[in-house]
Amino acid sequence: MKKNIFTYLFICVYLLSSACIQATNIKGTVKHAETMNPVPNVLITDVHKTISTRTDINGNFNLDISADNTFSLVFDNSLFIVQEKTFSLTDNSIEVLLIPRKTSAATARWRDYIETPKAYNQTRFVKNEGWGLQFEQAKLKGDFAVDTTMIRRDPSAVIKVGKTYYTYYTRGTRYRPGGEEKFFPWDECDVWYATSKDGWKWKEHGPAVERGVKGAFDDASVFTPEILAHNGMYYLVYQCVKNPYIHRVKNTVGMAVASSPDGPFKKLAQPILVPTNNGQWDKGDHDEVLKKGDFDSHKVHDPCLMFYNNKFYLYYKGERMGEEKMHGQREIKWGVAISESPTGPYIKSPCNPITNSGHEVCVWPYKGGIALIHTDDGPERHTIQWSPDGINFEIMGKINPHTPKAFGIFRTDNHDESPTEGIRWGLCHKYGGDHWRTGYNYIQRFDTKEKE
Ligand code: AAL
């Protein structure tokens, strides 16, 4: 008994002393990156949201940090891009420079839309000549013939290497081996690839990228890939989820690189894109939040890598913590992260979000700018848009609400011939079965025609 009391006492003393040793007072200043003026009222939290403080009128803050060697803080003020930075306990005077946010053309329009349901649901724009588009869909042959036991979905762009077309896509079984349902159709999937000589009959070759080992950031699923062929290298970008796949899980974007379209693809050790860490969950396990955070505080989806203006533009769809329906529509917007090198680092644009609507990312080059299609979600759903700079998009035309989903475009070099030449054909996915969550998914072909 005595021995037990001593043991407890020893543990208490040890815990108290280690707590005392570890709490270090960290001081710092936050400044405007361009003017170098102090920034007051910046919310500073540790990455796990356990401690927080705000900068004072002189941009100064101090925090008691309990950590071993390093710690990470999130700096959040609505006028600036959120910054997440790792410091060492020996950094006793931190200086952080915040980059001011800029308003994209789509965000400027958003401010008008949200005033009333009518404004939100009756987007007005001038229809520009040459931007009409009509879609046809058809079933595929070979390994892409409909299979009701499988999930094949979210095909990447189709690329042509020599005389062969390649695509990469999400592949898994509809149910778990025991017949049990998965969390989502795209849970427990891998990225596979297939080839075709004519774009209609496809042969599946096996995985290009598989889920990671237990405990890795990609151990639950790797899915929704896109491919960029650049200077003889092949860059696959895709969504990654870590176990357990629950509603509140945050996802990341991973990359794998190969010197041949057949692989082997080597994964980068770390994700190239993560959600913005400025939302805060409330009690509960679903969409209950204390703070929603940025448009991409929960998920970074549908990555699509483009080589543009001598840089690498990683377009993506953001989903927000605590997402709600706005005037009947999902609250979804796209962002872009830009890098000088294909493997990163990717820096989120200060103009994010660059759209106010949209679902799966679909972009192609046109006349020195970038065109896009919004199939679903938001006030500008069912539109085609174009931006001169890959960032500030304007509505150019309207598409039929029943267009295919999840385009994987075959992008040709003659994309400047007409506004929609960059999207003449490609692959898309379809849902089969009674419910999107439990049904099968298969890949189809789409072809387009100009429409006035
Ligand atoms: C799709 C895409 C992403 C989502 C899921 C699979 O429509 O937006 O890929 O995670 O649904």
Count of helical regions: 3
Please tell me the overall pLDDT. 93
Helix/strand structural class = mainly beta
Strand tally, please? Answer: 33
Distance between the termini: 89 Å
CATH architectural designation of the largest domain: 5 Propeller
* CATH homology superfamily of the largest domain: Glycosyl hydrolase domain, family 43
CATH class of the largest domain: Mainly Beta
Radius of gyration: 24 Å
Q: Which strand-content bin applies to the residues?
A: 35-45%
How much helix, percentage-wise, in residues?
A: under 10%
Low-confidence stretches: 12-19
Structure write-up:
The chain has helices spanning 2-22, 105-113, 117-121; strands at 23-32, 43-46, 52-54, 60-66, 70-76, 83-88, 93-98, 133-138, 141-142, 150-153, 159-161, 164-173, 190-196, 201-209, 221-230, 233-241, 252-258, 266-267, 280-281, 289-291, 299-308, 311-319, 325-326, 329-330, 333-339, 347-348, 363-366, 369-374, 383-387, 394-398, 405-409, 425-432, 440-450. With 452 residues, the protein is mainly β. The chain folds into two domains: 2-98, Immunoglobulin-like (Sandwich); 107-450, Tachylectin-2, Chain A. The strands form nine sheets. Strands 9, 10, 11, 12, 13 and 14 form a six-stranded mixed β-sheet that branches. Strands 3-2-5-6 form a four-stranded antiparallel β-sheet, with no helix packed on it. Residues 12-19 have low confidence and may be disordered. 3,6-anhydro-alpha-L-galactopyranose (AAL) binds at residues 154, 186, 224, 239, 301-302, 317, 359-360, 406.
